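User: structure tokens for tRNA-dihydrouridine(20) synthase [NAD(P)+]-like, please.
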Amino acid sequence: MIVNSLSLCYHNKLILAPMVRVGTLPMRLLALDYGADIVYCEELIDLKMIQCKRVVNEVLRTVDFVAPDDRVVFRTCEREQNRVVFQMGTSDAERALAVARLVENDVAGIDVNMGCPKEYSTKGGMGAALLSDPDNIEKILNTLVKGTCRPVTCKIRILPSLEDTLNLVKRIERTGIAAIAVHGRKREERPQHPVSCEVIKAIADTLSIPVIANGGSHDHIQQYLDIENFRQATAASSVMVARAAMWNPSIFLKEGLRPLEEVMQKYIRYAVQYDNHYTNTKYCLCQMLREQLESPQGRLLHAAQSSREICEAFGLSTFYEETAQEQDARRARLLTRTSEEAEEPAEDISGVIKMSVKFDRRAYPPQITPKMCLLEWCRREKLAQPVYETIQRPLDRLFCSVVTVAEQKYQSTLWDKSKKLAEQAAAIVCLRSLGLPEGRLGEESTSLHKRKREAPDQDSGGPRALESAQPGELCKKPFVTLRSGEESPLEGW
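Assistant: Done. Predicted tokens:
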């Protein structure tokens, strides 16, 4: 999915603000339906995003950024590609650029959160903590403006003094960003404190780039016409709406607010269509219901423990079943279409030694695995530790792993239901190709099993013991160097 336009106009726009747990794909699409021009995703932390892998989800017709634990951190679709802004939490210029480059072909803009006062953001030097480090602000924004092809923006809060605020925003403008969003409250202030329209106006009068006014939901914005009144009060180019849109996304509709029941049903349809996790769907619906949470429907929502039960609570059971059947049929068609590729990973694996094997835990003694045997053999032969490269097939979420030992790659042609099982299968292929014992019950060599039982009586606490260990002598979990350069305990123990 490639964004055709390299620029995003921030003049005279209605914008859905970034909101944690709220700004996921269903809410963004709903806001677009009701008239929002630009939608921001929730703040996503750079350290989480740089671990993600971009996956094209052909069943949902989305692009997913998937964490190592298979959790979808960010999901987007073609419908919003020219109007979604990716907001990140960051305190490091290089990490910020890495994230921007990861997502830039799937979003319309990149934003840096410099206004969130919550501890989860500020404790890492992110969010509002950046306001006290203008040098780092400048470094991050300069790096992003020069390094990504998307327009870069930031969202700030005002400082204790007007002079300091104006000095900061002028410095930010010089980095070359496309626009700046200003929440008209100080870092320590909360929604019950009045928003400082006059400070936002002073910023708008000072800068030549678009200023986006934010923070008006509590005192100023209850209906569509209030958005324009808030814009005029702040002299801003555009207005960013947060809680008023969370309560009812039809706030962007020129014709006026739609009935809440209609809005919630439309939201649920998007949530089911795009496989939104039911806990997130439930949270957003609770924000819409507000004082109606104790109503019969509110109690049904509170009791729901799945997307199916949420649909039942809102009279959408038939829609849920039809959507699930449609997605199952689409998944089956895609699997049929790619059946000839089912035995091969998508990556180039020429020169790989392959076998059709699977790891059966029942065939091995407790705590003995092929990966452990392979690691022990590599240490004994003074070879580099095995390196596992594992990929996941989006259609059925199965895994295939390739292990590299002494510059030779080994792979099982059978796909497995977990990363751990796929890596064990790859280790089996390697061991069998080299004619080495893999630790199975009944194998001639039992030293591995015997030594494993004796391990508690041995002193294996120091690094010297690890270096000289023979198969089975380890009492500590060995570590495998991953492709990313991180270390993790050897899986399968």
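User: Anything notable?

Assistant: The chain has 18 helices and 18 strands.
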